């Protein structure tokens, strides 16, 4: 009886211990299924199909080696899109990082309504890119846009300007401002989280040693926020490399500011050349991985307090 | 097209027992939906919008049912002058339900103020008149062209090409626009010159659609749109939005040589191969294009805004004219009867999307001065040749 009871207790303990061990796997299972089903399998499929001719105009699907990549390299629109996308990345990552750091530092010390400010900051991030682009279309409008109106009222311009038109650098910068408006709040929050971990004592000690706020920013804040800055920069790299909504709505298909993602869309869904679409997606994915790795290597530093 | 009023759809359901669920999608979203569902053989709708520019590829890929056995093509042809835009090698891919054609509109008052007493009938005279409007400061930028790199820019070029007495392709889809004296070359040169001379506002370089040009004309800042779209409720006659009430009218497209064309760019309805209820879909399409339904959708009986921009049915337009529900209705009827014609007789080529993309990006680049007109023409022609070779 006793033995039986002991055995039952042991079994129950084993069951509970087993459940405890299984719990993390159960909790993480939906995410794993999601990642495998919607990320990994389509990713592998894309990588494989990139080496096949896949188009409903020329069935059946056939292995064609690196023909898709050669065709893309010869496509002038893709080449222009690649250069433009590089500009989007450089301009966008720089602006989002600087703005993110500035916003995070502003929020670093508690002030009245800080929570409300943080909540308001999130709004642009929560808006769909299409909605934002429509809003900014009105702001940039060359005939009746707010930007022209304000600058003209301040006597900063003589005539209303076409912001997104002929000049590649100007057009890309103005389109990138829209994307930065969306992603800077997330950058700020990531950096803000890193700043919150910096002990106040460090600033107090620095102040006692005669360090002013500017030097404290360069010597304490920036170095210790590097993990947060690196993550923020990586998400900025991913977003800018994949820019589509803003470029398409504000610029159309014009070479002035067309992006690689726009070309992926045109090749895949307009030209129905799925093989080349997969190949271009693969190129963008690899570029994202390489650039993200570089950012992590250059910016990320392990910080211990 | 907007969703038909609930009462009309209810009446259709009572009549046929078919329930209609209407879903609005953006143009780009719909194209993606059609291609993905057709490739994956999955259902997405029983009836879908068919764009005139896609009928060539839809016919080749067999993504839509040929409608010959579902509708009375001969009877429809008598009342729907834009039906030809959906015919590819005798296969009817869609039926037009919302008419659209390219026409020239002018502000008569502004033309008169510039001392223009005879309305232009040739491109040379039209251009001279636009210059006069600018020189006499009647309008700083008298011509409205939406110059953004989008589908509308290609269509604009086809219309100007037609006005210069030519076509984009010969019957075998060989480009006919690559010599400097060809109509297509001269058309692009004309567009680029108009922009550089300031006949077109610099702001238009990123203007996507003709609606924006129309609102500029309704404000009086533009005196003419060469490739306008006639509508039942024209913004020019809107008391709310227009400062040029009663001043804007259609102009027979300036052209040399005659007869002038009005290119047809209608929206049609078709039945995807993946439809679950093709018979019910056919009944709905037949209902949608009935003259009385078209007239109702155009706002004949109600005070609400019309659900379509212009009926595709001649009978429906005639009924609207008799009830004084459409401005310059007799001119619209005349255009639909006599001068309207498909952009590509016999249907667009299967590689039209690639061609159009190359055309509007190159035209945009030429007009904005990034490349020369000759270089843009070369790019467009080469795309046509490459695509033709790769699909033949």
Model description:
The complex is a heterodimer of chains A (305) and B (392). Helices cover 76% and strands 1% of the residues of chain A. With 305 residues, chain A is mostly helical. In chain A, strands 1-2 form a two-stranded antiparallel sheet. In chain A, strand 1 (52-53) and strand 2 (62-63) form a beta hairpin. Chain A starts with a helix and ends in a 6-residue tail after the last helix. Chain B is mainly alpha-helical. Chain B has 15 helices and ten strands. Chain B has helices spanning 6-16, 27-40, 55-61, 73-79, 108-113, 123-135, 151-163, 183-196, 210-218, 278-288, 291-297, 314-322, 329-339, 352-367, 373-391; strands at residues 48-51, 87-88, 91-92, 95-98, 103-107, 224-228, 248-251, 262-264, 267-270, 340-342. In chain B, strand 2 and strand 3 (91-92) form a beta hairpin. The longest helix of chain B has 19 residues, at 373-391. Chain B starts with 5 loop residues before the first helix and ends with a helix. At the A-B interface, helix 12 of A face helix 2, helix 3 and helix 14 of B.
Structural key phrases:
heterodimer, A: 305 residues, mainly alpha, MetI-like fold, two-stranded antiparallel ribbon, 13 helices, 2 strands, disordered N terminus, B: 392 residues, 3-stranded antiparallel sheet, 10 strands
Beta-strand percentage of chain B? 5-15%
- Report the major sheet of chain B: 3 strands, antiparallel
Per CATH, the architecture of chain A is Orthogonal Bundle
Q: How many helices of chain B in DSSP terms?
A: 15
Summarize the amount of helix of chain B as a percent range. Answer: 40-55%
What fraction of residues of chain A sit in β-strands?
under 5%
Mean pLDDT of chain A, to the nearest integer, reads 90
Name the CATH homologous superfamily of chain A: MetI-like
Q: Total helix count of chain A?
A: 13
Q: What's this, in brief?
A:
The complex is a heterodimer of chains A (305) and B (392). Chain A is mainly α and 305 residues long.
